[in-house]
Design goal:
The chain is an all-alpha fold and about 160 residues long. It contains seven helices and no strands. Helix content is about 80%, strand content about 0%.
Length: about 160
């Protein structure tokens, strides 16, 4: 009984049970409790949005109209996300080249044959950056930066 009071006997029974567990188990249970709460919260938000979408489609609720400026921001955000993901994937390919391509190039070298010409990973990355810069507009900070880095990457790839 005195041991229970030292460990928080005045607290709720579920807290007392938690305190009696080893530290590692307590940490796991409290983290798991947090994740369940977050999952329940996310599910509630998803359900609310699904109900709103369904009501809008069935004509039972008035569709939320967005102003033109906000629609433009959404379109730009989507474009930025898509180009950034494309550039990121190509950067990963450049940093970790395909081993089969390297083996193919090695074999062509050993057999004294000409390697078929194809666009390199660096050139493709430069092309993506230049295309993205054109779409964002060279007058924007992101577009101007992509254009400069794309041109630099193209020169680097041609030298290499």
């Amino acid at each position: 009984s005195s041991d229970l009071q030292e460990r928080g006997g005045g607290e709720r029974p579920d807290r007392v049970a938690l305190l009696l567990l080893p530290r590692e188990a307590r940490s796991t249970l409290t983290n798991m409790d947090f994740n369940v709460k977050k999952l329940a919260s996310d599910a509630g938000v998803f359900f609310t949005r699904a109900v709103q979408f369904t009501e809008e489609k069935l004509g039972q609720a008035e569709k939320t109209e967005l102003d033109a400026h906000f629609e433009n921001l959404l379109a730009r955000a989507d474009m930025t996300k898509n180009w950034t993901e494309k550039i990121l994937r190509q950067t990963e390919v450049l940093l970790q080249p395909n081993p089969s391509t390297r083996v193919e190039e090695f074999l062509y070298e050993k057999l004294d044959r000409k390697v078929p010409s194809r666009i390199t990973n660096g050139e493709l990355l430069a092309q993506y950056m230049t295309e993205a810069a054109a779409e964002f507009g060279p007058g924007t900070p992101y577009g101007m930066t992509l254009l400069k880095v794309g041109e630099t990457e193209k020169r680097r790839s041609e030298e290499h």
